[in-house]
Amino acid sequence: MKDTLFSSKLSFNTKGILREFSKPIVMGILNATPDSFYSESRVNNLDIALAKAAQMINQGASILDIGGYSSRPGADEVSEKEEIERTADLIAAIKKEHPEILISIDTFRSRVAEEAVKKGADLINDISGGQMDARIFEVAAKHSCPYILMHMRGTPANMMKHTNYDHLINEIVHYFSAQIRKAQLAGVKDIIIDPGFGFSKTLEQNFELLNQLELLGFIGKPILAGVSRKSMIYKTLNTSPEESLNGTTALNMVALEKGAMILRVHDVKAAFETIVLHQKLIS
Prior knowledge:
By secondary structure, this protein is of the alpha/beta class. The protein has ten helices and ten strands.
């Protein structure tokens, strides 16, 4: 099944430059927010952010994901202006220090994405999959940015009221087919799909999704898996986000086995080592 469903290589074009990876890669999370669910991912000033970015790059991150809007339920609303202020200069500073690193802007707002790309962001990571601001497709197309399209129902504020599925996987596949079509019609060339662990899904549904992740391979797009320190881990283990690294590593290995090509994580070193060990298993 793996030979027919999954490519052993990951490639996409960023601003006219072809990026090719012969194995899965790590995306490190940098949150320029005061209220992200995992406190260690928060960076409160530029010096701390640059130090954290350098650490992640040295540990093996291929992409840094910069976000200025917390998507956890109950998080404070953030204006577009504030989101831009939190992310744009940070992206520029990281690019100046580390011009080789790829940066994704974690936003669902087209204006925030546009400003981030102007400052050096290479990819757009949209938790809403274009549902909250359809113009974001045009921004990705205009700047030749790969677009990470996530599955979510509703908004971050009300997503957990939208967990009623007749058939989880079928409905997620239908959603991706529809949103990929919209993105392509807008001119987006490279699309990565993120099934959205923790977004509009119950704990049980998250595990059902991970258990059948390989079925998303039929869509024909690279899969990003983001389970890092999420509630599906710490609620199952009756622990906390701070104590969920071991659980994250365990589920990241499952995600790799089922075809994930990008691991979005708070802990780059552990994820990079997981990929190295998985490569030994399949070589």
